[in-house]
Write a structure and sequence with these properties.
Layout: E1 5-7, H1 9-18, H2 25-34, E2 39-42, H3 53-63, E3 71-76, H4 80-89, E4 93-96, H5 114-128, E5 136-138
Parallel strand pairs: 1-2, 2-3, 3-4, 4-5
Helix pairs in contact: 2-3
Length: 156
């Protein structure tokens, strides 16, 4: 897993607000790579206010010679549109976020209550299926399940 993955969303937001194509996402991706980053992170939203779907394909093409050592992480809400994109690009990492497509920004993480588990568990299983691919799957801000401490076996 990448130790430093540069998130390009705000670069894309600036580009999109200027409507001039500047700054260039691919140029910033090269800069991140050449500066020693371990990967790139993008979060393509349905409204494309940050990274656009086409950007993801452009980045995947640019990164082809660098991958898998230089990781692509695609973040998103696990709907069919997102899963289709992930299946086409096959990133080294896929980060599932709980913000629905109509939400402006992430406000909280997964609680993994039964309703969320019923949504997330089949997605994780599909992503891990051998006929698809098996990226590293992250779910940021999860409320972890309680850990049970193991006691070492007695030497008696």
């Amino acid at each position: 897993m990448a130790r430093l993955s540069v998130n390009l969303n705000k670069v894309a937001l600036l580009r999109n607000s200027r409507r001039t194509g500047v700054p260039d996402i691919l140029r910033f991706a090269r800069i991140a790579h050449d500066a020693g980053a371990d990967g790139l992170t993008v979060h393509p939203r349905p409204d494309e206010r940050h990274i656009r779907r086409d950007d993801v394909f452009g980045l995947a093409e640019l990164m082809r010679a660098w991958r898998p050592a230089f990781e692509l992480n695609i973040e998103g809400y696990p709907d069919s549109r997102f899963l289709d994109l992930v299946g086409q690009v096959m990133p080294e990492q896929c980060t599932l976020v709980p913000d629905a497509p109509d939400v402006l920004t992430s406000e909280e993480g997964w609680k993994l209550i039964p309703e969320q588990r019923s949504q997330v568990d089949p997605v994780i299983a599909a992503l891990k299926a051998p006929q698809v691919f098996a990226p590293a799957i992250r779910m940021p801000y999860c409320t972890p399940a309680p850990r049970r401490l193991r006691t070492p076996p007695s030497s008696d």
